[in-house]
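Treating backbone geometry as a discrete language has practical consequences that deserve illustration. No coordinates are needed to read the tokens, only the vocabulary itself. For completeness, the protein is quoted in full, as a sequence line and a line of structure tokens:
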Amino acid sequence: MKTKRMNGVKSAITMVAMAVALMVGGTSVKAADVNVDGGATKAASKRLNYNTNYVAHFDGAGSNDWYVIKPTGQNNFYEIVIKNFNISAGGNGYYGFHAYVMNGAGDVYMDIDTHKNKQTVTKVKLRDIKEDLYIKFEVGEGFKENSPKENSGNYRIAINTVKDDCGDTMATATSISYRKTYTRKMEDWYNLDPTIINEDNGLWDTGLYEDKSDVDFFRFKAPKSGYYTLRLKNINMPSGGNSGHTLNAEVLSGYEEQLAKVDSGKGEVHECKIKLKKNQTCYIRVHLGEYVPQNIGNYQVSVWDNDYLSAIKAPSNAKATVSGKKVKLSWKKNSAVKSYTIYRSVNGKSYKKIATVNKNSYVDKKVSKNKKYQYKIVSSKMTDKTNVLSKAKSAKTKKVRVK
């Protein structure tokens, strides 16, 4: 039998944990620490519950702690949190404190290496895995010859289920409506695929490159026949260049035939057109390119019917006239437009927003002598709490000089 030595150490850890909630990657685990004894063998594995903090004592070099969990089958997104309180381990993996995640046959999915006084948070998606998963704790090869008293200590383990904000397959795709904008977060997940083995290390490997991060699927059913525009905005993900370095969206038929595609770098908005028949359903697959350095950030996706967008044209006949110490702007009014946003460039520099009006004229009083001014006007219309900008390029006035 395996001997455990928690006693006063267990009680102290539990009292501290009851006062402090564990915060992990935006997920709050509020439950107090629960004492647990890991099994000495796989057959004696201790079953763990999700979203619970467990604390345990590790008996040192030569010993093992075994646990078992059952995948939820609901997207299979998890955060595996391991905190090494005081087990002497550090440096490289050879001298680390390891948690091996494996199946019942002993095939290792991943190796989580935690050092003394360090916490490791691993985000993982386990693809199509339904059988029990086992977690085995042991010290690295560099400590295997140590006496049992060496490398002993205490640790915490928590396995938290995480709800994705968007379906990650065509079958679980999130339904969206046209003329609405949807904001989602791209997470950075290790997507473990049990069909691929890394020949270099013998571990189960991640899937194809586009599956190394979160993959989001949307479902859109066309309410009428005609052309639609898919808009993709990369809010803050550090990417740019070609599709291998950007946020990508592909429009797919129900048979996964690619109908259209678009990509956007950081801070960019790009769009593509789709021709759909009434009640035709298409799928939008959003993912990051192969070479994006950090797979975390936010984006927006929306589908617009082109008949609607064509009514929101850029203003026509935009004019700028100098009148004393003022510049008067005017343009032709469009009844479909709710408001106009005015941007100004001074002496050829970048445009900056100066006003939003709901009429077809504006007077700029904040001008100076001997400077050149140029303006552009953008039409917009509010629908479903979304501000739709003019699809056409903004109307620009000629440059004018204030004397």
The helical segments are 7-19, 306-310. The radius of gyration is 29 Å.
